[in-house]
Automatic annotation (TrEMBL):
The gene is nrdR. Coiled coil: none annotated. This is Transcriptional repressor NrdR. One of its GO terms (molecular function) is DNA binding. GO terms for biological process: negative regulation of DNA-templated transcription. A zinc finger (unnamed) spans 3-34.
Length: 163
């Protein structure tokens, strides 16, 4: 690893620590030339296999670009999108699988996007799951509606129990 200060071609590891969740290793390094110290963070690389068979590194930016169009005209900020991409990466890493196909990435986007904005979710799902009829939309909307009703029922039962 090059020294970021003087560009010396080598550095020495002086300390290594695994993060609490075990997903990364932080290393403290020292440059033998200028003696300055710096930290590196090591995480397993995540790959995405595209439909064409091409493998590329997972990128949060690509997740954001993928959902941005579905969020057009919706009350969704750039921060919301960044947070969504972060949640997608966390759930992808949590699977422990180093290589996922683009379809699986899409699946992990659906959950957090639905929490963020249901209209954007329906738009994204319609493209991603290739809705080809009004019935497909109807089924997706009915599912959302049923979950709203369930959530409302849960809430009112909580209200009653606190009386
Ligand atoms: Zn140096």
């Amino acid at each position: 690893m090059h020294c970021p200060f003087c560009r010396h071609a080598d550095s020495r590891v002086v300390d290594s620590r695994t993060s609490d969740d075990g997903a990364s290793i932080r290393r403290r390094r020292q440059c033998p030339a200028c003696t300055r110290r710096f930290t590196t963070l090591e995480t397993a690389s995540l790959s995405v296999v595209k439909r064409s068979g091409v493998t590329e590194p997972f990128s949060r930016e690509k997740v954001v670009n993928g959902v941005r169009k579905a969020c057009q005209g919706r009350p969704v900020t750039e921060d919301d999108l960044a947070l969504l991409a972060q949640r997608v990466e966390e759930s992808v890493r949590a699977t422990g699988i180093a290589e996922l196909d683009a379809y699986e990435i899409g699946l992990t986007i659906l959950g957090p996007l639905r929490e963020l904005d249901e209209v954007a979710y329906l738009r994204f799902a319609s493209v991603y799951q290739a809705f080809d009829s009004l019935e497909d939309f109807e089924a997706a909307i009915n599912l959302l509606r049923a979950e709203h009703e369930q959530a409302a029922a849960d809430e009112s039962s909580v209200d009653r129990s606190t009386d």
